[in-house]
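#data-curation
PF: Archiving a pair of folding outputs for the training set. Convention for this channel: one message per protein, sequence first, structure tokens after, nothing in between. First:
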Amino acid sequence: QVQLVESGGGLVQAGGSLRLSCAASGSILSINSMGWYRQAPGKQRELVAAITSGGNTNYADSVKGRFTISRDNAKNTVYLQMNSLKPEDTGVYYCNADLYRSALRRYNYWGQGTQVTVSS
């Protein structure tokens, strides 16, 4: 089995910062991409940021210049540093991993989600 365990969410005032972490564990051969998605109440889940095993990154336009995604391949962990937070960043943040459990077995996993609330 594979688990993604997220941490770092919470309540912060607008303009503040939070750092999310997501550690993947279990039967993993290699991880291709890892990313963060968020879902606000009444809205669809959307991509926030993603990073490949080689370090290429992709960000939603709404977070460019404020959020930074990084990963530690040795620890199978991805981070999301969120600065200059806005109330519209509020939502449940989910970690996602696209990985191989063996040479021919590729899977996509989700974490349980962590709440981020930004007050105005």
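PF: Second:
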Amino acid sequence: QVQLVESGGGLVEPGGSLRLSCVFFGSIGSINAMGWYRQAPGKQRELVATITRTADTHYADSVKGRFTISRDHVKNTVYLQMNSLNSEDTAVYYCGAGLFGSRWPNDYWGQGTQVTVSS
């Protein structure tokens, strides 16, 4: 049984920061990439950032230089540090995990955590 549990969302003012966490429960040995997606109201879910077991990272152009993804293998946790937030970052953020052989971390999903950027 695989489970991803996100935390860290909330309300933040423009220019502020948040750190999201996602804990993986299950057979971590089968997982390569983990990452974050987001879905804003009326929009499709989009990839935000990914990180592989060997710490290779990938970011969406819209978050490069502002967001940082990291991974703690001991705690089976992936983090998303979000800085310089703006209203366009408002969305439900989902943690994803991908099996070896999967191109993207979308084999397993968390329940999502809401991030709202507003003054």
